Amino acid sequence: MYRTIKAAAISLKPKGWDKDHNADKLERFFRKAAKTKADLLLATEGVLDGYVVSEVIADPSRTAEMLELAEPIDGPYVKRFQRLARSLKTCLAFGFAERIGRQVYNAAIFIDHRGRLCGKYHKTQFAEGTHPSWNFNRMGRHLRAFDTPFGRAGFLICNDRWNANIARAIVLDGAQYLMICSFGTRTKNQNVAVLARGRENGVPVVEANVGVNMIVSKGEVVAYQWGVDRITTAMIDIPAPPSQRIARQAESQYIAWQKREMPRRYRQTNKSFKEGQAPRMQTDDTGRLVSRPASRRAKNRTS
Length: 303
Prior knowledge:
- The protein is built from seven helices and twelve strands.
- A hairpin with a 2-residue loop joins β3 (91-100) and β4.
- Helices cover 32% and strands 27% of the residues.
- The chain has two domains: 2-242, Carbon-nitrogen hydrolase (Nitrilase/N-carbamoyl-D-aminoacid amidohydrolase), CATH 3.60.110.10; 243-303, no CATH class.
């Protein structure tokens, strides 16, 4: 029911306005991360341009400079990383400012091991809000999954991770795993939000944030690392796409467990009452009874 792959998150901190420097640094880190034999390498938000949109908001006279800095999807820097993916024979994903005509979008792309562009996403939720005049910071209008060598996937970018509806819509479109490119807060609340997006949707999540990497699989944090310019790896279990066959398989597995577990619980309950104790029916995430009975007189009820 799962496909296991190795993912690497890179908390790369780019330099504002210096695309050449950032591209060189990103390639170095991708090459280093590839040595871990990871199947998927994910870097941060705005990693080519340095995520300078806040500076343009503060000083709109820099709009033309931002348009020049932004990279078209068929531009030389994207092509450079398509060639690198082919050379490394691994999948690469990262965020950057994408130019479409005279508009700029906060984008993330996925390049497969053959150098093919599998998917693209535009950030849909901005902490700073938006204004019609901001052609340097356009909002995305689609929440879609896309096909990858490991199944369907979806992106979230930074502030998107706070909104459960964004992740849910992408998973409902078929995403079997989520990637988060971020250049944002590193608080405990952000960790809680990333973990929640995985648990709510039953999918693994790989986050590369400037300052912290976090990887979630099967509803648990399987890797976490603080600091910039760090490479963090972990195995993630990607669930199979929903189907009647998979649903019946999961049903059969549960029924087999039920046949073993319910008689065991009955025996424990009966023993507790005989000992003059009332059992506390608490279970772990697998449904297995884990609590010890309370030391008190039996009552003719269980919870």
